[in-house]
Amino acid sequence: MKPFLLLATRAENHAADAEYRSFLRFGGLAGSELHRIRLEEGPMPELELADYSGIFLGGSPFNSSDPEEAKTGVQQRVERELDALLDRVVPEDFPFLGACYGVGTLGRHQGAVVDTTYAEPIGTVQITVSDDGAADPLLAALPSSFAAYVGHKEACAALPRGAVLLASSATCPVQMFRVGSNVYATQFHPELDVEALVGRISTYRHAGYFPPEQAEEYMERARATVVDQPEAILRSFVMRYARD
């Protein structure tokens, strides 16, 4: 099987490694089947799409909607590189799944309105699958409503033109969409289980997602939840697109 590719941007090694392990676990992949590139460490190398079965874009501390003057040089470089990659991925309809940061990245590339209107605090929300989502191969095996973990400062306030809405929540109308037949983005995190979320809360307690003194409270709330459906999206993506 040709490997999948994970594009990552988390500077903290423990958070980056935990994310990689989550994609391996829920994608049902061996280490040799998921190639990781940490974009925050250096420029994206030249990529041949034909070398991969598909591409994952992990979550990020970056926000696509931040003013340009507020973005670091690293963030600006990463955004340019991702835009250039999507310039190839979208026309070729190459398998792509962006988690959380994927909504802002793919949405902005496709002309969506991405801003802070529908930000959601770290926690659990109920996702509602649209009729188009119920017919989509990545969601077809999931119930019409399921719990998922979120935590984001920006979101799509309006879909990109031509995109298909696959899932929503009461507090964020665009939770998952598709461009073409094979290019996806989720606002929620299909790669997170409860312990991974607790780890994220610890890592990003001073990142502005919540008052830092409330970190333990957020962890306890997370441990009281049951979220076991979204991970099936990753496995479905791998099963659908894995190729020799």
From TrEMBL:
The keyword Transferase applies. GO terms for cellular component: cytosol. It comes from Arthrobacter echini. Residues 46-192 form the Glutamine amidotransferase domain. The keyword Transferase applies. PANTHER family: GLUTAMINE AMIDOTRANSFERASE YLR126C-RELATED. InterPro entries: ChyE-like, Class_I_gatase-like, GATASE. GO terms for molecular function: transferase activity. Keywords: Glutamine amidotransferase, Transferase. This is Glutamine amidotransferase. Pfam families: GATase (PF00117).
